[in-house]
Amino acid sequence: MSVPDYMQCAEDHQSVLVVVQPVGNVPEEQFFKIYKRIASVSQVSIRDSQRLLYIRYRHHYLSENNEWGDFQTHRKVVGLVAITTCSDSKEWPLTAEHFHTQKEVYGSTLYDSRLLVFGLQGEIAEQQRTDVAFYPDFEDCSDVEKKVEDFVESIFIVLESKRLDRATDKSGDKIPLLCVPFEKKDFVGLDTDSRHYKKRCQGRMRKHVGDLCLQAGMLQDALVHYHMAVELLRGVNDFLWLGAALEGLCSASVIFHYPGGTAGRTLRHKANISQPADAGKRHRPGALTANGISADTSAEIGRAKNCLSPEDIIEKYKEAISYYGKYKNAGVIELEACVKAVRVLAIQKRAREASEFLQNAVYINLGQLSEEEKIQRYSILSELYELIGFRRKSAFFKRVAAMQCVAPTIPEPGWRACYKLLLETLPGYSLSLDPKDFSKGTHRGWAAVQMRLLHELVYASRRMGNPGLSVRHLSFLLQTMLDFLSDQEKKEVTQSLENYTSKCPGGMEVITLPDGLKLPPVPFTKLPIVRSVKLLNLPVSLRPHKVKGLLGPNVSTASPFIYSPIVMHNRGEERCKKIDFQWVQGDVCEVQLMVYNPMPYELRVENVGLLTSGVEFESLPAGLSLPAESGLYPVTLVGVPRTSGNISVNGYQTSVFGVTSDCLLEGLPGVKTEGCLVEVIPSLPRLQLSTSLPRSAHTPQPMSKEELSSAVSVQLFNGEGQQMTITLENIGSEDIESLELTSKNVTTKEKVFGDFLSWDLAEVASHIPLKPGQAVTLAVNVNVKLDFSGQESLLQDLNDDGISVTGLPISSPLRQVLKPRPESKPVSGESGKGEYSHIKTLEAVLSFKYSGGAGKVEGYYRELSVGVHVDVEPSVFFTRVSTLPATSTRQCHLLLDIFNPTEHELTVSAKNNQDLVLHASECQRMAIQVDKFDFESLPMPNQETIHFTNPKQLEEERQHAQGCQINSNHPSLRRHGEASVEGVLNQLVLEHLQLAPLQWDVLVNGKPCDCDVIADCRVGDAVSLEIKLTNRSENAVGPLALTVVPYQDYQNGVQNYDLGDAVTFIGSNTFCIDMVQPKEKSICVGALLFLYTGDFYLNIKFQDDSAGRELPLAWFTLPSVHIRTMDTLFKDAA
Q1: Among 238, 739, 884, 1009, which one is least packed by beta carbons within 10 Å?
Q2: Which letter does DSSP use for residue 736 in this model?
Q3: pTM of the model
Q4: Domain span at residue 533?
Q5: Which residue, among 83, 79, 60, has the nearest Cα to 141 in the 3D structure?
Q6: Same domain for 963 and 1047?
Q7: What is the tens place of the pLDDT at every residue in 675-709?
C-alpha cells in the first residue's frame, strides 16, 4: 500500500467501506450530486437492534489498498454502488456487462452491490430487481437514500454472519493464517503444525474478529478480542499484527471516550431513521433509556474495564507505531496511525506530544511519491499542526506544499495553487493582508520570514500574470516592513515597485480574488511619515469677524456649566473637535503637515492633496521632494471650499512610486492634531491696499507682522505734517458694500497733541459699493505734535548776563546767542545736545473694516490694518515760558526761550512778529503779544503756534538692512511745521493768559481806549466817559464804586495829580454800579471838560469801602485812558 489516507481517524475503524463509482459516461456534475446524497447516509440504525452501522464512502479507491482488508477490515471494500446512464433498452446489456466488470475489481471482498440506472424507461425498468434501481432522470430519484439504507442493511447482515462465523471457537478446525500482501512469500515453507504458528494464526484471527465486532457495533466484544489478540501476538513476537491489535484497542477506547469523534466532523443523522433513545449514549456506563436503566449494565461495566484510559491510549499508539516502524512496507500504516494519534491528542489538548507524533510522521519514508502526493502530504501535515495550535509550524509545511506546486520537475507549474497556499500561510506567520493590523502596537512575528513570504507572493502573482496583485503585495511589503528593510533592500523594493507600477499603477480599490478573498488597499502612511496635522487660520487681513451683538450658530448649544469634573479624553473626539476659527468660502485655505522622509534617498511625492467631507472642496494638489532622512519638514496643503458649512479634514492623498494613497487620519494613531473640523462661512470680498509712503520693517508694538497687511514709515520733524495716499482695490469676487476706517495710537510713552492721523471718507463713500477690480484713493494726513518743552537749566546763561526784558520795547524780539559754558559748568555739553537730538517714535494702526456679499448677510466682516511708523526728529524746544502784562487788559506778552536742537538753521515765525533765525544748537528768546482766552468758551485755548522753516539739506532715506545712511541732497527742499506751547504752559502762565471774569470797557467819546490808544479832544469841549462792566463769572457782583482821578505823567518819574484848574468833571467823578447778575452788563456814563491843552491820563480806582474788595484784585483791572487835548485852532488845522 503506497497511498495513505490522511483523512483517517480512530473512529473510522468501526465503519465499513463502500465505493461509489460511475459506470460508462456519466456527467461529473450529476455524479457528484448523487454521490453527496448517497454519502449523507453515513450511519444506519439496524432494525431489531440497538446497534448502528457506520459507512465510509469513497469514489476512488486503489485495489492494492483493498488487499490490506484482512489486516484491518475498515480498509476492505465491502460494498459497491455504481451509477450509470442508459437511454434505451439496447444499451442495457452493455451497461450490465460493465457493472459486472466493475464488481470483479473488488469481487473478493464485496458483501453486496447496487446499480443505479438513470434515464432508462420501459419494460426493463419495470422489472423488480434487488441489485438494480431504475430512475427516469437525475431529478426524479427521491428514494435514493432509502435504497442506500436497504443496501447498508444487507451489508450488515453479511457482516454479522461473518463475525459470528469467525467468532465461533471451532477448535477442531484449522485456523487460516491471515497475511498482508508482502508477507505471503515469507510464509512459504513454514511448519504449519508448530505451536508458534498456531498461536500466530489464533492471534491474528482474534484481532480480525475484533475488527468485525467493532464494525458490527459490538464494542465490548471488540475490546475483549483485541486484548486477547495482544496477548497472543506478543507471545510470538508478531510485531506487525501486534501493532494492528494495539491500534484496534486504541480505536475502540477512543470511540468509548470520545463519542463525538476525533476528526472534528459532526455526525449527521437522518431524520427519517428511527434510533433508540439511548443511541447517543450507548458507550456510557449506566446510560438511561426510555424505560429506565439499561438492562446491559454488566456489559457497560465490562466495557469500561477493558477500555484504555486516555493516557494509555497514547502509550499504546506509541507502541503500535514503534512496531510498524520495524517494517519498511508498513510505512502507510505507520503514517496513518500517527495521524490518528495526533487527532486524539488534539482533543486531549496535548499539543506537545502530538507534535512528536507529527515529527515522526515527517520522516516516514513512503518511497517514490508523485508531486501531487507530496503536496497532499505537506498540506495534511500543515492542517494537523494547525489542529494542535502550532500555527507557525503549520504555515511552514503549507509553504513547503506551495513551493512543491511549482517544483522544477513539474512541466506545468501550478502558480495559482502556489499563490493560494501561500495566502493560507499568512496567519501562521502573524501576517494579514490588512495594513491596519500593523498600525496597532508592536510588530508581531519574525520580520525576516514575513518579508520572504511577501516576496514569494509578489513573484507568484507576477507569474500568474496579475501585475496589479504584485503591486498590492509589494506596496504592503514596503508599508508594513519598512522598519526592517536595510537601505539596499529599500532601494531594491522601490525600484521593483516602480517597474510594476509603470505597467499597472497602484490605487485604493479593493482587489477581489477568484475565491472571494478581498485585498484591502494599502495607503503609504510611512512615505512620508506624518507626525502632526494642523489646520491654519487665514491671514489676519482675511480672517472673518463677527459683528458684535450677533450670536454665532454655536452659542445656543454651549454648555451652561463653567466647569465639568468629567473630561473624556478620546483621540477621535479631539480629531472631531471644532476649531475656534473660520474659513471663508472661495478663499484659499491651508493645512500644515509635519512630515519626514525615512528613506535613505530623496523621496518624491506627487499629487499631494487633502481629503475632506462636509462641503464641496477643491483640493489643489502639490508635489514635493524630501531629502534623505530629512527630519521633520513642514508641508502646506491648500484648497478652496466652494460651499459653506462645516468641513472636516479626514486625511491626505499622495502618489509615491506610482501608487496613489488615501491616508486617513483615523488610521494614524501617532499623528497629533488640534482638531480637524472647521466652519466655512459664506464668501466675503477681499480688499488690497497700497500707500504712497515707503514700506517699513518696523511693526507697531504689541502687534505682530502677521496682524498687519503692510506697514509704512516716514521721518518728520516735530510739528511737521505730511499727506499719505492710500489706494484701495477690490481684488475679490464680491462687492464691497460697507467700509469703515478707524485709527489707534499704539505709542504710549509720548503725548500727542492734536490728531495724529486724520482723513475724510466722503470721497470713498461715494464709490461704495466697490465692484470687483475697481479701486479708490483715500488721503490720510499725518501730523506729529509732541511735547516741545525742554530743560530750563539749558537757558541759565540768558539770565546770567544781567540782561532783562523789562524796559525794552515789547514789540521787538529779544535775541541772545547761547555762549559757551565755562569748564565749571559742563551741564549742557554733548550730553545735553544728545538728549535734545533724540529721535522719538510715533506708531499707529489704521484699520479698514469692510464687508459685502453673502458673508455680510450672515453678520461677518473683514479687517485690514496698516501700521504707520513715524520717526519724529526734534525741531524746536521751549525751555522757559513766562508772561508780561501788556498795555491792554485783554492781552499779554508770552516770553519763550527757544532752542534749536538740529544741525541746521531754523527760522521761527509768529503772528505779527518778525522772523527769528536760529542757528544749530542756538537758543534765543522771543516775546509774542497774545490775546487772553476765556477757557470756558474755548476747549483748547492754550495753544499758540510758531511756524519754523528749515532750508538746509536733510536726510530723507535710510537703508535699514545695511545700517548705513545714504544722503540724498535736495537743495530746493523746504520743510514746514507748527510747534505748540501747550505742553510747556504752567499754572501761573495759564492764569496770566486767562481773561478776568469781570470784563471792563472804557469808552471816550464813544471810542474804546485800550492798547495805547490816544483819545483826541478839543479844549473846552465836553468829553463823554463811559465805563461798561460785563459779568462773566457765575455769581452776582456789586454794588461797586469807582473814582476817576486825572493826572499828568512827565515821563521822568514825576506824576502831577493836582489838576483842579486844568480838568473839571461835569457831574461827579465817582461812578456807582449796582448788583450785576451773571452774564449781564452794567454801564456808567459821565463827562469831563479839559481847560488846557496837553496829555492827560485817567486813573480809575475802586473805593476802599467797596463791597467788591473781597474779590481778587485781578478782577478789577481797568484799561488805562490816555487823552490828548488840543487847541481848537490846531485841531482844525490838523
Answers
A1: 884
A2: B
A3: 0.69
A4: 529-547+575-681
A5: 83
A6: no
A7: 889 999 999 999 988 888 888 776 666 565 557 77
